[in-house]
Amino acid sequence: MNSVIWRLPRSRYEAWESMKGVREAALEDGTARGAAQVFAREFGLGLDELGTLFLTAKWRHSCGGQAWADICSKVQELVKEADSRDEKRFMAALGELETLHHNTGSAARKLRDLLGGMYT
Questions:
Q1: 3-state secondary structure at position 102
Q2: Which residues pair with 106 in a beta bridge?
Q3: 107 with 95: CB under 8 angstroms?
Q4: In this predicted structure, what is the pLDDT of residue 76?
Q5: Angstrom distance (rounded) from CA 93 to CA 91
Q6: What is this structure's pTM?
Q7: Within 10 Å of residue 98's Cβ, how many Cβ atoms?
Q8: How far apart are CA 66 and CA 52, in angstroms?
Q9: Helix (H, G, I), strand (E, B), or coil: what is residue 106?
Q10: CA angle in degrees (0–180, nearest 5) for 36-107-78
């Protein structure tokens, strides 16, 4: 696989910092689908492919696994609901995303920590 994702730093904090420009470009797009496409272009993987990657032998036991595959699947659902403009379904999907966990805590808490600059 020729994805740029293989070259990200293994530290989540360093990886987060190295993706700053991509995150900013995704925000500038203004839509969930557009943001997902910005990441797919940059890293050579869409959310569905990323979910599959987390289940491969190389990532399954180190930094991926079923939990992150589930998170990717839920983010795909969130993008779909954002496109539908059905606020109730979008909020339900967002609530479900916030309940997903990986190792030491919820995905939502980890993202809030990163967004809050705790690890920069």
A1: strand
A2: 101
A3: no
A4: 87
A5: 5
A6: 0.71
A7: 14
A8: 9
A9: strand
A10: 40
